[in-house]
Design a protein that fits this description.
Elements (H helix, E strand, L loop, with lengths): L9 E8 L10 E2 L12 H13 L6 E8 L2 E8 L1 H11 L9 H10 L13 H10 L1 E8 L7 H15 L6 H6 L5 H10 L3 E3 L4 E3 L18 H17 L7 H8 L12 H5 L2 H17 L17 H16 L2 E2 L5 H16 L6 H8 L5 H17 L5 E2 L8 H10 L5 H9 L7 H7 L8 E4 L14 E4 L1 H15 L1
Parallel strand pairs: 2-4, 3-5
Antiparallel strand pairs: 1-5, 3-4, 6-7, 8-9, 10-11
This protein binds zinc ion (ZN).
The site of zinc ion has 7 residues, from α17 and α19.
Length: 483
């Protein structure tokens, strides 16, 4: 029985003389949306041209023939760097290497290749390069419609399979998932290059990039910016500190989080509450930190140089922004100065600075360290007595005390913990009991260990974390006692 293949891909192999690769000959899309941007060093470009002249093997390039508004173009699925190297040489941007191998050819055939740029060659030598040197091209046909999702996906699949040997890193893989609404949102907001689908060409700038990312001090590592925004979005989806590991980022790009749907259209996706809040937070972060006095020469915030610190600033500021606080631009300066001072403490040898030592020991990206860092930083912020008002002031304990108690008790209801420890299987770890006794910031009470009515002080030492159930049952017993 003959194998029935359903892919509409046809492959035509052709041999093209190098002049066919000239940018004046065909319209090449060298960086389609699923491609990353990589740049060969000159040395590698020269070595490729040397291979052509010496007749050494050069692997074929893979092109996708597309028709965009009746114009035929070639999308480069594989061979971006080889085609660029040929074009750069023909455009006179570098010279051939002055190598032993090329000099031998010059001597034997009375030519003058070695060490020369294209313009420096004789007409005969130019013709030899343009017409006698060849490169094999594999042309994919049958997926020529640039607006067809199915065609795009097939092209991406071919790209992906070709890259297996080179092993894309996880973020590069995520970057090429061009049909995911999450990917498209993240690339639009955080990438420094873009793709114009209307004109069907790649652009070296991205007008939709959020200005916050120009403040991030990661050098030129744009894929890290995508990862950072993905982590912000994970935090918004969880509505607070959450798992932000690489695995979770990949699942996010695959729309395998919460109610995300890989087929959701962009407008619906962007009107989601978590996406709108992420956007709102990017604005706030930009507004707060654009005015710091600690800028690099490239106008990046000096202290935005490591991810776990930025993520904790994010969880802290989003809590102030969306939680029950009076927080507005009047508070930006003190937040900015707090962030700067906190970073300076991290940079100094923090001997004896327990908060910073603990913070630095919790640099992992799983949920527990992310939450622990959040509360350590929140506690340090409240120690500075910021001019931020918690709007619910019905409580006996001050906000600063509550933060300190919550941090000290590690977000665990002390009575739940007691009960969970008693009920724990002998072969289970105590951390299991702790996890089960965890409470959310929005769902606990600061309880007096020695009751207020019995003269117990309203201090951090006399306070403990209680879940609402335990606090309520406690109050019932107390009122029975006082009756
Ligand atoms: Zn409890």
């Amino acid at each position: 029985m003959v194998l029935q293949r359903e892919n509409p891909l046809f492959q035509a192999q052709q041999t093209w003389p190098l002049h066919q690769f000239g940018s004046d000959r065909h319209d090449f899309i060298k960086r389609p949306p699923y491609q990353r941007k990589t740049v060969w060093e000159r040395k590698k470009q020269k070595s490729l041209m040397e291979s052509f002249i010496c007749g050494l093997y050069v692997p074929p390039v893979v092109l996708r023939s597309i028709t965009h508004e009746t114009i035929q173009k070639y999308e480069v699925i594989d061979g971006q760097q080889r085609i660029t190297a040929i074009q750069d040489y023909l455009n006179d941007e570098y010279s051939l290497p002055n190598s032993q191998q090329i000099r031998e050819i010059d001597n034997r055939q009375d030519r003058g290749f070695a060490g020369n740029s294209f313009a420096e060659l004789s007409d005969d030598d130019q013709a030899a390069i343009e017409q006698d040197c060849n490169l094999t091209v594999d042309i994919l046909q049958g997926i020529s419609n640039p607006t067809s999702t199915e065609h795009q996906q097939l092209a991406t699949q071919v790209f992906w399979r070709l890259q297996q040997g080179e092993s894309l890193n996880t973020l590069e893989e995520n970057h090429s998932k061009i049909t995911s609404p999450v990917r498209n949102y993240i690339v639009e907001r955080a990438d420094d290059i873009s793709f114009d689908y209307d004109e069907y060409k790649s652009l070296d700038h991205n007008d939709d990039r959020h200005p916050f990312f120009s403040l991030v001090n990661y050098g030129n590592n744009r894929l890290k910016h995508l990862g950072l925004l993905a982590r912000f979005l994970l935090i918004e989806i969880a509505d607070g500190p959450a798992y932000v590991t690489g695995t979770r980022v990949t699942r996010l790009f695959d729309c395998e989080k919460g109610t995300l749907n890989p087929n959701e259209d962009q407008t619906a996706f962007r009107s989601r509450r978590e996406v709108q809040r992420t956007d709102e937070m990017l604005d706030t972060l930009h507004d707060i930190f654009k005015d710091t006095e600690m800028m690099t020469d490239d106008d990046q915030v000096v202290y935005f140089d490591n991810e776990y610190y930025i993520i904790t600033l994010y969880t802290l500021i989003r809590e102030l922004q969306f939680g029950n606080y009076r927080f507005n631009s009047g508070n930006f300066r003190e937040i900015r100065e707090f962030a700067r001072d906190f970073y300076r403490r991290m940079q100094n040898e923090p001997v004896g600075d327990d908060a910073i030592l603990r913070f630095k020991s919790k640099s992992q990206q799983s949920a527990d360290p992310v939450a622990a860092r959040h509360w350590i930083m929140m506690n340090e912020l409240w120690k500075t007595e910021p001019d931020i008002v918690e709007l619910d002031s019905q409580r006996l304990f001050t906000h600063a005390q509550r933060v300190a108690i919550f941090l000290r008790d590690d977000r665990v209801c002390q009575q739940c913990l007691e009960e969970e420890l008693e009920a724990l299987d002998p072969d289970e770890d105590e951390s299991k009991a702790k996890n089960r006794a965890r409470v959310a910031w929005s769902n606990w009470d600061a309880d007096h260990i020695v009751m207020h009515a019995e003269g117990g002080d309203t201090t951090i030492e006399n306070g403990q974390v209680r879940c609402p159930e335990h606090n309520r049952s406690d109050n019932v017993i107390r009122s029975e006692l006082t009756d």
